[in-house]
Amino acid sequence: xxxxxxxxxYIFHGTRLNIKPEAKQFLHExxxxxxDAWIPFNEGxxxxxxxxxxxxxQLADKCxxxxxxxxxxxxxxxxLRRSKAANELLNYQHFxxxxxxxxxxxxxxxxxxxxxxxAACIVTEELKNTxxxxxxxxxxxxxxxxxxxxxxxKDLNEKLFTQIRLAHNEGIFHLDLKWRNILxxxxxxxxxPIWIDCPRGIQxxxxxxxxxxxxxxxxxxxxLSFFSYSQLYRMLYLYLGKxxxxxxxxxxxxxxxxxxxxxxxxxxxx
Length: 270
Fold this sequence. Notes:
Blueprint: E1 14-19, H1 24-29, E2 45-48, E3 52-59, E4 62-70, H2 84-97, E5 105-113, E6 116-125, E7 130-132, H3 133-141, H4 146-169, E8 172-173, E9 182-187, E10 190-195, E11 202-203, H5 209-223, H6 229-240, H7 246-261
Antiparallel strand pairs: 1-5, 2-3, 3-4, 4-6, 5-6, 7-9, 8-11, 9-10
Helix pairs in contact: 4-6, 5-7, 6-7
């Protein structure tokens, strides 16, 4: 589990189950040491259900998130391709390599029939003292005194856009970097953005400008409910870095606007 090379050794037929040593006892108590238990597993709080099932499971003082992708339609979609669960694990490893806080993966499960993916699961560990970015913004930041708001917002913007710049400079793209896929951890007065839920993420070091535009557009879609276009334009300089020119910033800004215009965001009342 500690080596990313594991994800490139596809199984053609059968079942693969990898569990980190520190999670074996916990998953055994849930009955998940048996590979046959993963597809019918349905313990805990149901967060989503359907093609993708997400469960929050609490046992004593430990909490995990169990996500299962079960393919009953489009049976050949992942034929000889990496599963979403494996891709998510790989992306978490990439994030950590460039210093972006993310989830700790405890287990990975896949079952295939002659190359055709039937189901894949990933188990991650709960991070304490975290809130989704949209909830944090509405329920914590906006309710703070105005001077504290400015300090927190400046701190979060600098940290988040620095993370995105670091990832993009290494050709790493989340591809679903919405507000709900960013957790804010509050610990000892320090705010830390944490990236989660990235089964679509990819690596592309070259010819990736469109991916940069798409990633920033996804982040901007929700932000337009709280910030003006001029405020978002100024934030782009945090992403581009100190050496950015006005020409670079304007081009990126207008390309993001064009991308958003294809499916205009629903602007909430500020």
